[in-house]
Amino acid sequence: MKNTSKKVAFHTLGCKLNYAETSTIGRQFEAAGYEKIDFDQAADLYVINTCSVTENADREFRKIVNKAKRQSPDSKVAVIGCYAQLRPENIVATSKVDVVLGTMEKFNLLKHLEFESDKDTPLVIQDSEIDEIHGCIPSYSVGDRTRSFLKIQDGCDYPCTYCTIPLARGISRSIDPDILVNQAQEIASQGVKEIVLTGVNVGDYRFANAITLIDLLKRLDVVSGIERIRISSIEPNLLTDEIIKFVSESRTILPHFHIPLQAGSDKILSLMKRRYGVDLYRDRIRAVRSTLPDAGIGVDVIVGFPGEGEAEFQATCALIESLDISYLHVFTYSERPNTEAISLPGKVDMRDRKIRNKRLTELSERKNQAFALRQLNQSKRVLLESSKNGELSGMTENYLKVHIADQSNLALNKIVEVELTGLQNSKILASITS
To answer: What span, in angstroms and rounded, lies between the C-alpha atoms of 301 and 324?
Structure first.
């Protein structure tokens, strides 16, 4: 398949880290002479980068395989990434694919295309001894979005009982800060205004033991050409006062923290094997808010974990009600093979899980609206990201999506000063001030 006329299309499931890695693999193909096209077009090769976090992601990839084969029946299909690492036998049994590559081997996809499958025996390479992987392949995304996802770390040392990511991606390891600074400079040279630092456990960034996340932030903060840097997510026990203070003084690091909670009950946090309790979490929210009063604060929460009775769920609701946060990402617990949680007693009925998800989703909407109302009549800097139906839209520093009456003299990927003027059906309106 090493022919310059070949066309390749990519589809990414899951997290920002997957997007960074897909983009890096895509650049490998372009350098080899392939034409990268949209996934909705007829291609010679379709590459699906999979996720293992939710049950829906497992099902979705099969629909995507079927779509690819309908579009181009003679094409090859490669399934790569976390689900390919964890359940290659499921992929082979339930879909017509040609190549299945695990966590690290996916970066060698070009080499493996020399393999000629007969459809009945696809090439399957599952990385063995994933816990022994110490390498960390540098990756970043450009071209597909206004912002760029920069991978700084991979793997995780936290044995949360519901999570398959350590099984799929191995132990925590980090990328040389010199490489990351060089990549940030490459990203800036392509006109990208915002970088999102991503990884499995970003707060656990440590290189050669002496260099930690705060050191990396200080180095990236002075990279010329990059105007905004976001931290994608950080565990509460790793969000230090030093990091919060530096963000408040930084040139580029935005006042936006995504801090996973998962449950508002110490009992459930213990069953999950999280490394903090409710008191520490509450303290971290207060620490952010006292230093950065207008910071955006996002929260991950899981409903329906084994052992979560009505009392534990109400504790989660009460805690979230009491916290000065901006929004929630609500996940319904789903059983994952080879995790501790799957064998825990106290399974929650799926109907109750869905009801609890709905209740927290509604709470998230109320929190987000209250936060937005508090920001009205303030001046913000917005990165313009899209234009649709006569409106421009983009994100503020503190992660509010705002809508601006379209102006022909404004281009996307430009940062403008706006004033937040009002709410209209939960949509935040803004006007240009400069």
So the answer is: 15
Residue with tokens 């310059």: 4
pLDDT tens digits for range 186-245: 999 999 999 999 999 999 999 987 899 999 999 999 999 999 999 999 999 999 999 999
Strands of the 256-258 sheet, one edge to the other: 256-258, 296-303, 327-332
Selection from 393, 402, 319, 339 nearest residue 368 by Cα? 402
pTM over 0.85: yes
Q: Which two tokens stand for residue 373?
A: 């109302």
- C-alpha neighbours within 13 Å on the C-beta side of residue 80: 26
The residues, ordered by sequence, that sit 6+ positions from 296 with a Cβ below 8 Å of its Cβ are 255, 256, 257, 326, 327, 371, 396, 397, 398, 399, 400
**Domains, the chain:** 7-128 (3.40.50.12160), 130-254 (3.30.750.210), 258-375 (3.30.750.200), 379-432 (2.40.50.140)
Angle, vertex CA 227, rays to CA 390 and CA 188, nearest 5: 95
